[in-house]
Design goal:
13 strands, UDP-galactose 4-epimerase, domain 1, 2 domains, two-stranded parallel ribbon, Rossmann fold
Amino acid sequence: MKRALIFGASGFVGPYLAREMLDHGYEVSGADFHETNAFSYTHFYSVDLTDKESVKKAIEDCNPTHIFNLAAISSVGQSWKDPELTMRVNTCGAINIMDAAYHLSERPRVLLVGSSEEYLPSDMPLSEDMPINANNPYGVSKVAQERLGAIYRKQYGLLVYCVRAFNHIGVGQRPSFVIPSWCKQVAEIEKSEKPGIICVGNLNVSRDFSDVRDIVRAYRMVIESNYSDEIFNIGSGKAVSLRSILSTILSFSSQSIQVETDSSLLRPVDNAFICCDNSKIKRLIGWEPTKDLTATLKDIYSSFLIKEKE
């Protein structure tokens, strides 16, 4: 029996990945601070990723064949506010997982999730062989995690898979992230049946957004492959301006909405253009994105509209 253990199981991506793995014949267990109601895991472990012993205990008890590390300080903005915690969770936490996995009698495969924030900014789509030069604490933590993964792979023979996921969105993502924040604000204005104001940060940037369901399918396909010595970008391959995305979200509402810039939402450093070159994962893994961006945005907006009406 294939057994998947997902760290960060109660986060935004965790339940989506759990459903993906369950649908493909895995027994699925989760580990996080608190249990989620979004998915019924076979086993759930209350784990602090920075606590080596609690990580070790969960992995030994589950004895998984596949481990996914989704647990992270995943917001660039939050990483600027607490760089030390970001490094402890994202980097030291990954070490704790790999070390425990290495000491199992039957070593599992481990997938570490990196980010487009690792790359040197470029006005071209980012391929896996482009320069690495993260310019924020979150990106630095992911570079460190990835390089430690290479050590465990090369020196200890652990099958460590590394992916660099670009922005992904979907129903259930916290409003502290830009897309759900906008969808929530617009839904609240729509519910009020009055004109309103939406607060935004920098709109003069373009990002590569994918539906989270496409992303977790890629995670499964990568960890099931024989390419543990490769790094794979995961993204749509299209960069869309935030101004354009905001316009789409505003079009969902029948109310008049004024857009205002909130200086507190501006980052110290903000790359103008981030786009994924996904040709490698298409060629070697056979993965293709399938979800339409506008449909995903409408799903997120509708989820907040329903919540506002309840």
